[in-house]
Write a structure and sequence with these properties.
By secondary structure, this protein is of the alpha+beta class. Helix content is 35%, strand content 23%.
Amino acid sequence: MHLSRLAHMDVDEIAWRAKAAARIAWDRFRVSRTPAAWDRSELVTALSDDLTLDGVRSALDTGRWRDAHRALGFHIAFTPQRFALSASNHSTLAPAIRERFPRALAQATARAENILAGRYDLLGYRDLTFRHNGTEVDWQLDPVHGREAPRGFWSDVPYLDPSCGDHKIIWELNRHQHWLSLGRAFWLTGDVRYRQRFLTELAGWMEVNPPLTGINWASMLELGLRCISWLWALAFFADLSTSDEAPWIVDLLLGMDRQLTHIEQNLSYYFSPNTHLLGEALALYVCGRSLPLLRGSAAREDLGRRILLDEARRQIASDGGHCERSTHYHRYTLDFYLLASVVARITKDRAAAEFDRLVSRLADAARVLADDRGEMPQFGDDDGGMLFPMTGRVPLDIRDSLAESAILLNRPELQIGAPPEEAYWLLAHPMFAIATGGPARPERPVEAGRAERRRPRSAALQDTGYYVSRSPRGDHLVIDGGAHGYLNGGHAHADALSLTLTVAGVPLLVDPGTGAYTVDSALRDHLRSSQMHNTLTVDGRSQSIVKGPFSWSTMARSRVRRWQTHRTFDYFEGTHDGYHPIEHRRHVLTVHGDLMVVADLVTAESSSALRAADRKHTASVHWHIDPRWRVAVREAAVTFTAKDLQCQLVVPRGHIERFDADKETGLGWRAPLYGAVEPSTSLRISHQDRLPFWMASVFALNRENAVVEVEFIETTDVSLALRVVRRQSVDEVRFNETDEPVFFEHLPLGA
C-alpha cells in the first residue's frame, strides 16, 4: 500500500513529506528530552521590530509580565482596527443590537450562564460537562463516550481511533468558539463574570496544552479555527479599564504565534486539501493581517492569501458550488471567504476585490440551494460545526451568511429577510455602517413588486450537480445529479439521483444527515448508504461502497441527460452506474405547487447485459420524511399532514412499507445535527421483476386536488405512461427515453 501511494506522488509531494517527516522527528526527539512548556520570554523574539513595542520588549526581557500585558493592551487599543471587531466598536454596536434585537440580551445571558455553570452546547449535544477528576475543564475529554485522548506528542495521537473518544466533540470545545458567546454577553450586559470565565479558561487551556502536546495540536484546521476565536476574544476582552492580575494578552499572543507557526509547518497540502486547507489558510491570512505586531505576520498573510486564491480555482466550481458536494462544507467555504473579504476590506489589502468575487460566486450558489426560509438541503456530510456560531443558529440556516454577503457586495437579492444579529458583529467596522443604520438598516422597506422580482427561480448548478425547482408558494425541490464528492469523496454520501423536497416552506423529504464520523463506524456507514437517501436501491445494494470513514472503494458515476425549466413546471432526467451492469435512470417532473412525479427505470447498461440478465431483481425506492409531518399509510397511498398542509404519495406498483425508528433495518432515523440521532419515518416501496421495469411515485402537493388513483397506461423498456385520476382533474404523464422525453396533459374532471 505504501509503495502504491509513493508511486502516485510527484517530486514536490515527496520533498514536502520528507521535510515534514524530518521536522516532526526532530520535534519528537526534543520533546522527549525536554518536556514542552510555555515560556513568556519567547514572545520577545516573536514580536516585530515596530519601535512602539520597545516598552513591551523591555518588560518581557526583565520578566515584568504585567507591565508587558498593559503595554500590549494600550498598543492594541490605540492602533487602527484591523480585524472584524475591535474594542472601539463597543459603544456603537452594543446599543444597536440591544435596540434592534430585543431578545438578544436574554439569549446571550442564558448561553453565557450555561458556560459559567460548565455546561456546553456543542454540535448536536446539549449541556455537556467536561469535568474529570475534579478538573474545571478537561480539554482532552469526550464526555459523551467517557473517553479521554492521550497526551503524548501531537503526531502520535491516534485521534481517529474510537478509543480516544469522538475527536469531533473534543475539538469542538477546543475551538473556543464559545468565547464568542461570552464576549457577546459581556458586551451586551457588562457583566464581568463572563470576561473572568474567558480568562480562567485561557489560563487552564495553556496549562494543560503545552506546545506540540496532545490531541489539540493534531489538526491544523482546529488550530486555525482556535486562533480565529482568540482574535475575537482579544477584541471582546482587551478592556483597558480593567486591572488584570494575569498577563493574559502576553499568553494569548505567545500561544497564537506558536500555533500559527505549527500550522505553517504542517499545512494540509496532501492530507486534506479541501476545506481543511482553506481553513488553515484563512487563519494564517486573517491573523497575519490583523496582528502586524507579530514578526511572522507578513509571511503568514502572504502564504494564507496565496493558498486561498489558488485553492479557489480548484475547490470552487464555475457555478459557485464547492467541489466536495456537501452543502454544509459549502457553507463553511462561503464563511471562510466572507471573513477573508471583511479583513481584506478593513486593511485595504490588494486581494479584497478577488475575495469579493469569490464571495459573490459562493453566495449565488448558496442562494440557489437555500429555500425561501434560508435553509440549505442536507446533502453530503454535516459535521455540525460553523465558523461563527455566536448565537446558536443551526448550520443549515444560512440567512446570516447571505445577509453578510448582500451587505458586503451591495447585492440585496441575496438577502432573506432582515439582517440577523450575526451580521452586526461581523460587519462592525464603521466602513460597513451597519450599526449606525447604513446599508443594512432592517427598517428599510422593500416594495412587494421588487421583493417578488428578487425571488429566485428554478435553476441548476450544473458543474456541482444540483438541480433546483421552486414554486411561488415556497416549494423547493433539490435533485443531486452531480459527481461523487471531491478527490476521494471523503465527505460524500451514496446519494446519486437523490432529492429533497420542501412543501410551502415545510421540509417533507429530507436527507438523514451525519450522525458520527469515527466513533461509531456502523452508524457512519449506514447514514451514508443509498437506502438512507431519497433514491432507489437494487437488490439491497448501495450505489457506492465505503472504504473507511472518509473514502470509498467504488463510487457511482452520475450523468444528467436533461434539465428543463418553465414558469409552470420543471423536468429532470439523469442516470448513474452504481449498480453495474444494471443502470438506474430517474425522471422527475414537478408541476409548480401541484404535482411531483418521480419515475425510475431499472434497466441494463447495454443490450447484451440486458439479454444476460434473465433473473428477477428487487428495486426499492426510499422516501425519508421530516418529523414535522404525520404519516398515514393505506394500501398504495400515503397521506402527509403538517399544520394546515396535506400531501399525498400514491404508487401504481410496488409494496409500501413504513419504518419508524426500526432497529433491524436501520430505517426511520435521522441526524439533524452531528451527534443528534432521532426517530423519524422512512417509507420503502419495493417491486421485483425482470429487467427492464419502471417504478413511479406520484406526490400530490395540492390538497384541493388530491389523487384518487394512479395507473399504468403503458410501459415499455423506453417509455412509461401514467394516468393520474384526481378530485378535480385527470392528468396523463408520459416519460420517454427518446428525444421527446416528457409529455404532460391536465384535463378538468369530465372534460
